[in-house]
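sorry for the late reply, my laptop died twice this morning and i had to redo everyting from scratch. anyway the thing you sent over, i finally got around to it. pasting the sequence first so we're on the same page, its 108 residues, then the predicted structure underneath. double check i copied it right bc i was rushing
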Amino acid sequence: MISVTRSQREILRFIVGYQAAHGGVSPSHGDICAGLGYASKSTVNRLLQGIEARGMMRRLRHRERAIEVLEPITIPRATDGAPLYFIPIDRAQRIAALAIETRRGQAA
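ok and here's the structure:
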């Protein structure tokens, strides 16, 4: 995987999860701001430009919500299979570790 910053990785995860939850529709800059707690759409735009420069996604210019993620990104899922695209990465990792511990405890 191409090296990206933590913020860029969170945005990629958010986009992939949002698309999975909304039938392939990409989030708007406002959706990303609200979902990840950014105060400014320009911050989101700057991060998206960095991701795009690294070749991990592309956007169609002058088209709203036209984002295509080009690299495989894994997202956490609920037990019913619903994407959990709004959980911060650290929390998602703790949830995954807890799930593994729980499975190990059930197997014993």
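The domain at 6-107 is CATH 1.10.10.10 (Arc Repressor Mutant, subunit A).
thats about all i looked at so far, will dig more tmrw
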